[in-house]
Design brief:
Shape: globular
Oligomer: single chain
Helix content: 55-70%
Order of helices and strands: HHHHHHH
Distance between the termini: 58 Å
Amino acid sequence: MELHRVVGKSDWENIPPEEWNWWQRQAARTNGWGTPANVVTGGGTAAFFVGLGEVVAHNWVAAGACITGARLCDWVDGYIADKTGTKCVQGQALDAGLDKLQLLAALGLLTATNIMPWEMSVPIVGVQAVTAAVSYEGRRRGVNIQPNAPGKLAMAFASGSVIFDIGSRAAEVFGGAQSEAATVAQSVLEYSAYGGAAGTVGAGLLASAGYAWQTWGPDSKVIEIAPVPEIETAPPSTTEL
């Protein structure tokens, strides 16, 4: 979880500009948006929506590959930010925001197309809405809300529920209604999807409690976000001929 944690300042603001690496210089020039982790986050989001398109087209293998790849991007972007020294508030917000966008888009599509039952999707959306509302209130008060382990776990459970539910439909299509193996696989995947939904609700409520504690608890702190310093470039030297 420390890979996603930013307290007040971006990584490069804690060291003199002359010691910045190449990645940190690019991040500073773009006010924290042009980082390798943000590129991975954006690429993962693009892959996710391609996967949803494959779901609509009933290309189940391609859909599963794209969505799984997208979730892998979400798991490694924090590691990349940490290793390149480019953790920042902008990247943290982008990662969390695109996670929510992907999840809501997937749940909406799968429910509308009757791939995921509403009794599975509605509780996931509900608990995510509560988490987002508490987090928003904290940021509105000026508190630098930090991601917590239950929040990341809730997103992992929700992603698993989506993937298992798609897998359940794929098993039904590929195996055929009369195949015993396909029926067993479909049942296992379907129950796993419901388990993911239940895990999402439980972990999401714990995450909301943690964000509420950050917002209203006795240790709640308003953190001023320092502006990104501008890079001064020396004028090119001239020599007299």
